[in-house]
């Protein structure tokens, strides 16, 4: 998937996801952030947001108080399959009670009709109702009463979410001044199988393993960021946590390539390494020899050279379908040659920030990796229109193409892309030579669902208005685009009603 940062600065090497606060335990002791999606998947950069005030703080610890009304599209009565009492439309909201001066009091309730409070604690109804809320809202709703917490603490409501624990959140300070590791039972009840630990040491990781009931077999994904884990800590973690198949190491500068040799094992299928200063060619040798079942590799390393890309074995050539190389500055077209021969079955490839790769390297990719569905060439300043001709001629299955900051791309290159009938997502952020004439080539691409033109300085309001011909477009990004005026956005709202236009 493509990087979807809209700013002028270079996008991060590995994904940063939106975070919300999530209580650790029913009594509210301890908290953590929670991120949606797996670490290896890129998502739009979001800023941490505060928990919405759905429920008054006074209600969080008093289950005997009336259930508050919720901004839900369905009433509990509707979910229960019974007619709602007259004068009620939302959970726990009785207009006749809320407004004593109501001129139209509701008729008497049928003797067999359930009361609103009975509906509000009916677990069958709640199991359906809670699907309508976000993870952030579920965290708050779980504090309303024991019934709601019991329903919400089912693992099905937390699938795909990763708690993010910072060092300071792992310990409680006792009255004596000593520190005690927090109780992680609240996470275990919800069955979290993925964690991100930030700023931790070897000791912190050992404490986590000892205190989280599911750590030995139940945790499938571990992410360590800005941590001081050493070779010994990495070895202990992967030896003890036998269920881990997805591993991310970001900003960890205390482990070495020797630690990878001693700790990596064959069960790992997805590996992400970024901003780790000791990673170079020998690390790729360890990965290639110790991870025969690797399906996805995300790598940001300044010191990896062309030689490293020849290390992959025939086994990985068959199993590895995703390779993201980000800001690997030493990689040249020779490295691309090694890569396409070692990993011929790639369906996702990113060479973002590999600034030495030229059109010849793209030609090698197009000729040899015919299964590609996603290609990221962002921040490759040597790429020209010729590379786009190679892509259009050979990559017939390509669905996503990222050309952010490819400053030599012109309208001619877009004319080549216009022949690609399978392309669904096209990113042209800060392509400073693209003009209105180039946009005309895109108007016949009925397969396009996402188009990003953020930061393109030469596009005018007139040229952009022609995009209304793309009636199947679902997302249009015009951030920092001078030609995007308030009048244009109003025009799009009228003629592209089903498209999300990002201003």
From TrEMBL:
Domain F-box/LRR-repeat protein 15-like leucin rich repeat, chain residue ranges per copy: 267-340, 346-466
Disordered as annotated region, ranges: 1-42, 90-117
Key words of the record: Leucine-rich repeat, Methylation, Repeat, Ubl conjugation pathway
Biased composition (Basic and acidic residues): 105-117
Composition bias, Polar residues: 24-36, 90-104
InterPro entries assigned: F-box-like_dom_sf, F-box_LRR-repeat, FBXL15_LRR, Leu-rich_rpt_Cys-con_subtyp, LRR_dom_sf
Superkingdom assignment: Eukaryota
Any single Pfam family the record assigns to this protein: DUF7885
A Gene Ontology term for the protein's cellular component: cytoplasm
Gene3D superfamilies xrefs: Ribonuclease Inhibitor (3.80.10.10)
Role summary: Substrate-recognition component of the SCF (SKP1-CUL1-F-box protein)-type E3 ubiquitin ligase complex.
Subunit structure: Interacts with SKP1 and CUL1.
Name this protein carries in UniProt: F-box/LRR-repeat protein 16
Organism: Chrysemys picta bellii (Western painted turtle)
Lineage: Eukaryota, Metazoa, Chordata, Craniata, Vertebrata
């Amino acid at each position: 998937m493509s990087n979807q940062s809209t700013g002028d600065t270079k996008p991060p090497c590995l994904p940063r996801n939106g975070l919300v606060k999530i209580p650790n335990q029913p009594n509210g002791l301890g908290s953590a952030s929670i991120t949606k999606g797996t670490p290896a998947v890129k998502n739009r950069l979001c800023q941490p947001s505060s928990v919405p005030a759905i429920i008054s703080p006074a209600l969080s610890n008093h289950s005997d108080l009336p259930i508050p009304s919720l901004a839900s599209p369905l009433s509990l009565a509707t979910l229960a399959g019974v007619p709602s009492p007259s004068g009620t439309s939302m959970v726990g909201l009785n207009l006749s009670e809320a407004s004593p001066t109501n001129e139209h009091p509701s008729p008497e309730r049928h003797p067999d009709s359930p009361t609103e409070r009975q509906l509000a604690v009916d677990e069958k109804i709640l199991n359906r109702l809670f699907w309508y809320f976000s993870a952030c809202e579920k965290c708050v709703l779980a504090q309303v009463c024991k019934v709601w917490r019991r329903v919400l603490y089912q693992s099905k409501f937390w699938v795909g979410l990763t708690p993010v624990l910072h060092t300071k959140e792992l310990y409680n300070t006792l009255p004596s001044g000593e520190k005690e590791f927090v109780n992680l039972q609240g996470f275990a009840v919800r069955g979290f199988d993925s964690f991100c630990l930030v700023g931790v040491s070897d000791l912190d990781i050992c404490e986590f393993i000892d205190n989280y009931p599911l750590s030995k077999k139940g945790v499938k994904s571990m992410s360590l960021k800005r941590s001081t884990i050493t070779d010994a800590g990495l070895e202990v973690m992967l030896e003890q946590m036998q269920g881990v198949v997805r591993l991310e190491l970001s900003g960890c500068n205390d482990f070495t390539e020797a630690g990878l040799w001693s700790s990596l094992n064959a069960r790992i299928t997805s590996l992400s390494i970024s901003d780790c200063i000791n990673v170079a060619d020998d690390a790729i040798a360890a990965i290639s020899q110790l991870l025969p079942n690797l399906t996805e590799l995300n790598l940001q390393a300044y010191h990896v050279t062309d030689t490293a890309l020849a290390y992959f074995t025939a086994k990985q050539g068959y199993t590895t379908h995703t390779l993201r190389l980000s800001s690997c500055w030493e990689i040249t077209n020779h490295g691309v040659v090694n890569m396409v021969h070692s990993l011929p079955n790639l369906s996702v490839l990113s060479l973002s920030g590999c600034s030495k790769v030229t059109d010849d390297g793209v030609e090698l990719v197009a000729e040899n990796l015919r299964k590609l569905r996603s290609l990221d060439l962002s921040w490759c300043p040597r790429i020209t229109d010729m590379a786009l001709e190679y892509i259009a001629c050979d990559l017939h299955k390509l669905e996503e193409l990222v050309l952010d900051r490819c400053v030599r791309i012109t309208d001619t290159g877009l004319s080549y892309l216009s022949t690609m009938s399978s392309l669904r997502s096209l990113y042209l952020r800060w392509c400073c030579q693209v003009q209105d004439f180039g946009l005309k080539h895109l108007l016949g691409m009925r397969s396009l669902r996402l188009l990003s033109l953020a930061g393109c300085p030469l596009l005018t309001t007139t040229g952009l208005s022609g995009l209304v011909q793309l009636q199947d477009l679902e997302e249009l990004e015009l951030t920092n685009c001078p030609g995007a005026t308030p009048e244009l956005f109003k025009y799009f709202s009228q003629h592209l009603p089903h498209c999300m236009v990002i201003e």
